[in-house]
Every structure is written in structure tokens, then in C-alpha cells.
User: Fold this.
Amino acid sequence: MEYLAYIIVALIPALSVTFVVITFLKKQNERDVTTLNMDLKKERQKFFLEPRMEAYQRAVLLLERINPQSLIMRLHDTNKSAVLLQTELLSNIRSEFDHNVAQQIFISTSSWEMVKKSKEETIKIINVAAQSLKEDASAIELCNKIFEIVGELDELPTEITIKVLKEELQRLF
Assistant:
């Protein structure tokens, strides 16, 4: 019985020390894992920084290129019919968009949705302008009608989206 008392007296401090050591090691391990995760996240951010920046740049460039005024300045030809110019404008918008569709990987979902909506709204402006003209209208008439519709808007959808992308980029970096 006396031996049992000595064993218990010796066992209590040993178990206490073991418990403290295990607790300490567990907390130290958690801190190490947290530190490693933070380091990994920083490295990942460094790795994706350049592609993300490029994605925002390309998205803004896309929006600038599908802006109705930019499109008209690039594709305008006085010898074309309104129908032909409309077709070229819409084809150019779709081509620009298709060329940049992979940028959505690096841009927030909400911003990419705005880019898509800007594309659709620009297409809508062109189609509304074309539908309001006679079948034999000239490219100049279509351009004038597009400029008229654009002039009635407070801000173009592409311009709004560019502002959102710039704000998002500033928040991220």
C-alpha cells in the first residue's frame, strides 16, 4: 500500500508535466501550421499577382475596344451600308470578347458579369440604332444614330465597368 502511495505521488507530477508538454507542443504545432499557411498564401499571391494585373488590364482594354465610339472610329467606312457596318461592329465585339474570355479566371465573378453585361449593352445599342433605320441606310446614318443613343446616356456601360474594375484592382493591390 505504501508503494502505491509513492507511485501515485510520483505519477501525478509526471502526468501533469506530460500534459503541459503535450499542450505546449500542440499549440506550437498549430502556430507553425498557421505560419506555413500564411507563407504559402503570400507566395501564391506573388505568383498570381502578374496574371491578375494583366487580366484587369486586358479587361479594361476589352471594354475600351468595344466602346461604341472606339468601334466606329476603327471600323467606319463611308462606302459601307448600315447593315454591313452593323455586322462588322457586332462581329468585332464578339471577337474581342472571345479573345479575352479567359480573363474571368483572375477577375471577381461580379466584375466579370459586369464585363459581359457591358458587352451585351453595347450590342443592344448598335442593334437598336440599326433597327431604327431604313433597310438601305448608309454606314454614316448608323454611326450618327449610335452617337445619338450614346449621347442620351449618362454613362456608357463600358465606362461604368471600367470604373468598377479600377476600384476592385485598387482594393486588391
User: Anything to note?
Assistant: Helices lie at 2-66, 68-75, 82-100, 109-131, 139-152, 157-172. The chain has one domain: 49-172. The chain has a mean pLDDT of 92. The CA atoms of residues 30 and 36 lie 10 Å apart.
